[in-house]
Design a protein that fits this description.
Elements: E1 9-25, H1 28-31, E2 38-50, E3 55-63, H2 67-77, H3 89-99, H4 108-128, H5 132-136, E4 142-147, H6 157-169, E5 174-178, H7 184-198, E6 204-207, H8 214-224, E7 231-233, H9 241-250, E8 255-257, H10 264-272, E9 278-279, H11 283-286, H12 289-301, E10 305-306, H13 312-320, E11 327-330, E12 344-345, E13 348-350, H14 363-367, E14 369-376
Parallel strand pairs: 4-5, 4-11, 5-6, 6-7, 7-8, 8-9, 9-10
Antiparallel strand pairs: 1-2, 1-14, 2-3, 4-13, 12-13
Helix pairs in contact: 2-4, 3-4, 6-7, 8-9, 10-12
């Protein structure tokens, strides 16, 4: 561990990594014709090294489109890191924002910065010899976990039942399934079948992926009350704060949303409108850990529950540091990218005791790298 302020960034490596999925993934956006099935995820990895031989890794990602754009923007600004004190994360964040000021402070621009920002936080925790959750100030050593990857709409109901059973046996505490099909009766049959399979005591969530209009969401939401759901996720368009607020006020089942938003400012509109009971920010999508922490403070101040979207390798630490008992989303899709695994036990995901995020990239991650670029000296 080095003294504060005595180290400098000497080398940055960016890599574009394409992770192929075992099968094409479909949710309601595919069944309603708005998107094509998802066959791969494109990652932007940032690796940062310092003069004192400290190292940090971080990543951002994109589904279906946008990965090459994130990589292109990161290449334009990453050189500005060289010579900076890696502990000055806020200063560096502002510097990178201003470097790309003409393209704004949300979306691709800040998603490119996110990979760098996350790598800096990983490095900072490693320098302290602490897991990131402990560096931030953990409220707990494990977080309630629910599985999503087994509940997509391309899978027949019997397969979903089987995968839900396996998830619970593996120590995952809750199950989320996708809804939002053109035939709403099929959605209700799907939820009823899974609730009967799980029993009344297993936490169950549904996710409509923004596919209902306001009247449909209210009507289906009232029907879904009987199933004792933990939440209804993204019932409406992600930017319909007023509609989500109406649902949150009229339904007993909590409303969860936020994963598709690309900045803290966009989340503030949800918070101000009282549009969600459970907020679901995604650190790579909103620009990294630095803006995530700002949003978490605001969400806690307004009494909101937290359930970050995707990227459990990052979000486990952030959820562990949130004052109110959160949920973290379990996806095994990213497992091939890393040498380490997260553990689940008794319905919870355990914060690893390894410093930083607690991950190193695998040989498979290197094999899936389609392009890379370096700045500074090794």
């Amino acid at each position: 561990m080095t003294a504060s302020g005595s180290d400098r960034v000497r080398h940055v490596r960016l890599a574009s990594v394409v992770l192929p999925l075992e099968q094409a993934i479909s949710d309601a956006k595919v069944l309603t014709g708005r998107q094509r099935p998802m066959t791969e995820i494109v990652f932007l990895f940032a690796e940062i090294s310092t003069e004192q031989d400290q190292h940090g890794i971080g990543f951002s990602y994109s589904k279906r489109a946008g990965g090459p754009a994130q990589y292109a923007h990161a290449k334009e600004i990453a050189g500005d890191l060289i010579g900076e004190d890696p502990s000055d994360i806020g200063k560096i964040y502002d510097k990178l924002l201003w470097a790309g000021a003409s393209v704004g402070r949300s979306g691709v621009a800040t998603q490119a910065i996110a990979a760098i920002d996350i790598a800096l936080w990983d490095l900072k925790a490693k320098r302290a010899g602490l897991p990131l959750a402990k560096l931030l100030g953990a409220h707990r050593d494990s977080v309630r976990a629910y599985n999503t990857s087994g509940g997509f709409l391309h899978a027949p109901i019997e397969e979903i039942k089987e995968r839900a059973t396996k998830s619970l046996a593996a120590g995952i505490g809750g199950i989320k399934i996708k809804v939002g099909q053109p035939d709403t009766r099929a959605d209700l049959q799907r939820v009823q079948a899974i609730r009967e399979h799980l029993g009344d005591d297993v936490p169950l969530m549904v996710d409509a992926n923004q596919q209902w209009d306001r009247p449909t969401a209210l009507r289906i939401g009232r029907t879904l009350e009987q199933f004792g759901l933990v939440w209804i996720e993204e019932p409406l368009d992600a930017y319909d704060a007023e509609g989500h607020a109406q649902l949150a006020a009229e339904l007993d089942t909590p409303i969860a949303t936020g994963e598709m938003l690309g900045s803290v400012t966009e989340h503030l509109r949800l918070i101000d409108a009282r549009a969600a009971d459970i907020i679901q920010p995604d650190a790579p999508r909103i620009g990294g850990i630095t803006p995530f922490l700002r949003l978490a403070t605001l969400a806690d101040h307004h009494g909101l529950q937290l359930a970050p979207h995707f990227a459990m390798e990052i979000h486990l630490h952030l959820a562990a540091a949130y004052p109110r008992e959160p949920w973290v989303e379990h996806f095994e899709w990213l497992d091939p990218l890393f040498n380490e695994r997260l553990e689940t036990l008794d319905g919870r995901m355990l914060v690893p005791d390894r410093p930083g995020l607690g991950f190193t990239t695998s040989d498979q991650c290197q094999a899936w790298t389609v392009d890379s670029v370096e700045y500074g000296t090794r």
